[in-house]
Amino acid sequence: MKSGATIACFLGILLMLLAGCGARSIPQFEREHLFDLEIGKMENQLDLLLAQGLPYDAATRVRMRDGIFYIANGNANKIMEFTSYGDLLGIVFDPDENPRPVSLQSPREGLAASRRAHSYPFLQTGAIAITNDKTMLVEDRLPPERSIFDDQLDVILNRIVLRFSPSGRVVDYIGQEGIGGTPFPFIHDIHVNRNDEIIVLSRTMTSWLVYWFSADGDARFTVEIALDRLPIPGDETDVVAMLETVVPGFDHTELYLKLNYYRRSHDETTGARSGITMDPSRVYRLDLTTGRYEDFFEVPANRRRVSTFNPFDREEIEFHYELIGVGPGRNLFFLSREMGNSAQLLIQNASGRVVRRRTLTIEDDEIEYSAFSVSPEGILVGLLAWHDVARVVWWRTDRLIGSTS
């Protein structure tokens, strides 16, 4: 009996050691649950209803500024504004796709300035950004009769950026040349930097287009990033570059490009191509005042040893980092989804130094929709949606970069 107990104890300790070896000593960083939203079509609900197996028709975005949360619900063509306690402060909604608000009356019926409801005939909302004075910038799509075909880009120009005043009324719209300009191609995202400059990121099949405007909406820079002229490490011929995303700097007039590199491997005996392997990803910094790539850094790999069905058999898996956003102090936020409920947050500065790594809990195996953004304060904000509820959360990452910003 003693011998059996000893063996069992030894096996238990060995299993714990094996499990410990697989999990890196990366501290857990707790998220804070702020408020929940019911799934539905009322003014304080999130419309993420869909037939089983079908994708959502339009994206839902979340932004936070000064503790106020803005959720652009693409399926419902509405933008909702909440306090951190989940109280609905305002809504701009398409009256053809949403019921008349009951908790927020219209301004003509005596609504107080702090609680408002405005209608606008959106065709298809998308990206959203918020300025310092709480002006809302909202992507909308134009009807076919107002769309333009661009022969040079070989795309349809049918996106504009609407500007709504802090009270929720539409002011004007921004196009390629500024106020009232030519529509944009497909909009990937909208950003606002520290100085309230507006950055619109568009994509075509062959390039990314960056439109940079002053706070007043005047055009400053237009940059085309051709996908066939991306920087290659050492000008190697067997490496293919893929541009994953572009994010503007928050403190400076610059762009950060995250590139993934794939190498064509060859059979040593025959010399024939045998497959593709992934090289380390890089982030390049493009200074718009000089028009040059000033520097770059590599994104470290997130490799984890995970158990298979046999607890003694473990294999190393590399998980991919996504660039989520750029916070103050030139801090770049990356998120890597792992197996189960874990994700890894990586914060690097513009020189490539790892500022912080933290483990986050995100129930990827249960969540049906998620969206993330980095606030001007450097807080990671998340919208996590299940089939019956959506949860707005944040991770106080501003405390991790406070001494570096």
Structure description:
The chain has 405 residues and is mainly beta. Helix content is 6%, strand content 48%. The chain is built from 2 helices and 30 strands. The protein has helices at residues 2-22, 398-401; strands at 32-38, 60-65, 68-73, 78-82, 88-93, 116-119, 128-130, 136-141, 148-150, 155-157, 159-164, 170-175, 178-179, 187-192, 198-203, 207-213, 219-226, 239-248, 254-266, 273-287, 292-298, 302-307, 314-319, 321-327, 331-337, 342-349, 354-361, 369-374, 380-385, 389-395. A 5-stranded mixed beta sheet has the order 2-3-4-5-6, with no helix packed on it. Strand 11 (159-164) and strand 12 form a beta hairpin. It is globular, with a radius of gyration of 24 Å. The termini are far apart. Mean pLDDT is 86; it is low at 6-23 and 108-113.
Mean pLDDT, to the nearest integer, reads 86
Structural category: mainly beta
Indicate the percent of residues in helices. Answer: under 10%
What share of residues are in beta strands? Answer: over 45%
Count of extended strands: 30
Oligomer description: single chain
With strands numbered from the N-terminus, the spatial order across the biggest sheet is: 2-3-4-5-6
How many helical stretches?
2
Q: Describe the main β-sheet briefly.
A: 5 strands, mixed
Are there runs of 5+ residues with pLDDT below 50, and where? 6-23, 108-113
User: Over the alpha carbons, how many angstroms does the gyration radius reach?
Assistant: 24 Å
Q: What is the CA–CA distance across the termini?
A: 61 Å
